[in-house]
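seq:
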Amino acid sequence: MKRIILLSVVVMFQGALLAGDSPRPNLVAHEWGTFTSFQGGDGALLSWKPLETSKLPGFVYDWTKPGLGRQRFMLTKDGITSLQRMETPVVYFYSDKEQKVDLEVKFPQGQITEWYPQAREVGPSIIPPSPALAETDALLRRVGAPPSVSLVSLLGNKPVAQSLIHWTGIDVLPPTRRAKATELLPMDRSGSHYFAARETDSACLGLDSLSRTNAPVEYEKFLFYRGIGSFATPLTVTMKANDSLTVTNTGKETLRHLFVLKVKNQTGHFIHLDELPAGQEKMVPITEADLPLPKLADKLCGEMAEALVARGLYPREAKAMVNTWKDSWFAEEGVRVLYVLPREWTDRTLPMEIKPAPKELVRVMVGRAEVLTPETEGQLTRLITRADDGDTQAMKQLKTRLEGLGRFAEPALFRAMDAAKAPQESRAGLMALLTTPQPKRTENGIAAKEVGAR
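struct:
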């Protein structure tokens, strides 16, 4: 029995060595995702609750159900605030033959919050050591095995100190197995954003669920993860007036494909800047909204998809990304800037390692800066002052304005209360306005009725 255990461990380690790290000529990996922030007109980043509107399928893992014996903890929607929401990075693979791949992404300035399929390591996390594995390792020590030969280490049954996600043994399936594997993809009535990402020609992936209670293999068209963090992206947006804004590149690399978008009263307008060099700023006029939202959506989404393809994504990947997020670009009224983050910034913020290395790795992240305009902040401040003086009509109007701000209503209200110097005894009543349900959406996700104006 002892010899069998030792032989199995040796074979596993030899297999890892034989896999090698040399690039595979027929393996391609593509990734896209979004970083969203909310800021005041002065450019200051505002803390907000990024998990508040997260809508994902029930099979997606998070820290309320992390699996693999990991200690659960509650990243509650009401209790977690951050400056950035890393939304829906997905990694696609393409290969003409079946092969095994490992992928690790580190997030040193943030925390991974959701993922699928199950990953061998997600951290930081606490995993109580398995008594069975610990006993086997003790047996290995007694028969003279070196400390480097450890089932606890090999099988990942150990605490993870770093912020990272690590998938091992990803089975990249060939095109001949795609149709059958597609039938095994998990489905759910929720999380429409999630499913749009499947509309590509990427390979189906199969991963060991690492669980005796789940299906033995979990299938998906991509690797999915999300996270939160408190750091700045390399674009600052300032608005001293309501008819223009200034975009400033505070980073080391050129920013490309900046879209300045305004949505108001079911109409909108956007301006496309090709690039913004490092260290430079540019004033952009805010044109009055003049296109109906459906036409605006078609025009902006078409140009955004072209920009994503220009940065290396395949056309169907770019379309999947746009279809994932197009409703949220138009759901809340106001001003926002969408832009493509430099690949160098992505590699520093989310270092990725794939073994064996693919012949091509494309990573395209889109920054999204939501702006609390001076007009909106002024409206909220005035309504708070009137409501504090007992004006019930102002309280109703304030409630309506907050509904129009969607998931950014709370930080906007906090900032306006500070500007209005609202007394502490009034703030609880004002905060109660945030419990109002969000506006209804049409089938394509665009708000059926937007209220108020920024």
